[in-house]
Amino acid sequence: MASSEEDGSVEEKENNNKKRTKSAVATAWLTFYNIAMTAGWLVLAMTMMRFYIQKGTHKGLYRSIARTLKFFQTFALVEVGHCAIGIVRTSVIVTGVQVCSRIFMVWFITNSIRQIQNEESVLLFLVVWTVTEITRYSYYTFNLLNHLPYFIKWARYNLFIVMYPLGVIGELLTIYAALPYVRRSGMYCMRLPNKYNVSFDYYYCLIIVMLSYIPLFPQLYFHMLRQRRKMLHGEVIVEKDD
Ligand SMILES: CCCCCCCCCCCCC[C@@H](O)CC(=O)SCCNC(=O)CCNC(=O)[C@H](O)C(C)(C)COP(=O)(O)OP(=O)(O)OC[C@H]1O[C@@H](n2cnc3c(N)ncnc32)[C@H](O)[C@@H]1OP(=O)(O)O
């Protein structure tokens, strides 16, 4: 009996040690990740401001930041992994939709269709994303370091109220502007007959993507409103599992 109790406590200690090491490694990685992402989006903000001050126009701005934007926005895929392995307490689905829709906007819309890169709507979502991500990653960083200034917490859980709809407007207007070019060029389309016997029309795919904002965006927005109530007003919220 005594020996099994001893075994139990040794096992428990080992488990606790493993958890501690795992959480120390996870915290170190998350701190590094969030600092790198804050820095990346700050570089984007500074490049955009410098471009606008020097040229006095937003035309050509996308080209000047394209590489940095593609790198940091694509790297955010790591966040889906963070949720999947459980080192952050966020839904894989919510994070997955958020990150994938952004990657889609960058790679399959803005980067692929040169003719729309100078649209005002592109500038709108770029500015909104940049402000949001600098706030979000600096919030996570200071939070992990246990030195979170209240104004960053306030910004994280208030700015999105306006920024989220503005970002969505920018994204939807950009996809809408892309439609005529996609239709005319037939890009990413597969017409029958072909050896795979599959037909795909990117134009209709884009219309479906636009329509999918109707059910998906409110879920992300209400998720953030619940987070806001929890973080700023201390409300206990029971979330359903994925
Ligand atoms: C393939 C084709 C796809 C086509 C799909 C088309 C449909 C698309 C519809 C979607 C529209 C999206 C539009 C969007 O792109 C527009 C914009 O973004 S505009 C700019 C405004 N945006 C925002 O404000 C973004 C808000 N969203 C988010 O912040 C996150 O992405 C989200 C995952 C939605 C929510 O975040 P989360 O659930 O993580 O909330 P919290 O920040 O409160 O965090 C919860 C806890 O997790 C800890 N955490 C999370 N991440 C980290 C991290 N990196 N490091 C450390 N800790 C982290 C956090 O601290 C919390 O922990 P605790 O509860 O212990 O305090």
* Element order: H for helix, E for strand: HHHHHHHH
Radius of gyration: 22 Å
The kinds of small molecule bound in this structure are:
ligand L7CU2Q4V
Any low-confidence stretches, pLDDT <50, length ≥5? 1-5
Helix content: over 70%
| Percentage of residues in DSSP E strands | under 5%
* Number of helical segments with 4 or more residues: 8
Largest sheet features: none
Our count of domains comes out at 1
| Separation of the first and last Cα atoms | 41 Å
Structural class: mainly alpha
**What's the average pLDDT?**
91
Please provide the count of β strands.
Answer: 0
What is the 3D form? globular
Membrane topology: Multi-pass membrane protein
EC number: 4.2.1.134
InterPro entries: Tyr_Pase-like_PTPLA (IPR007482)
Main location: endoplasmic reticulum
Commentary on this structure:
It is a single chain. The chain is an all-alpha fold and 242 residues long. It has one domain. The protein is 77% helix and 0% strand. It has eight helices and no strands. The radius of gyration is 22 Å and the shape is globular. 19% of the residues are buried. It binds ligand L7CU2Q4V. Ligand L7CU2Q4V binds next to helix 1, helix 4, helix 5, helix 7 and helix 8.
Short précis:
With 242 residues, the protein is mainly α.
Main features:
single chain, 242 residues, mainly alpha, 8 helices, globular, disordered N terminus, binds ligand L7CU2Q4V
Strand and helix map with partners:
Elements: H1 2-55, H2 61-75, H3 78-85, H4 92-110, H5 120-144, H6 150-156, H7 160-185, H8 202-233
Helix pairs in contact: 1-2, 1-5, 2-4, 3-4, 5-6, 5-7, 7-8
The chain binds ligand L7CU2Q4V.
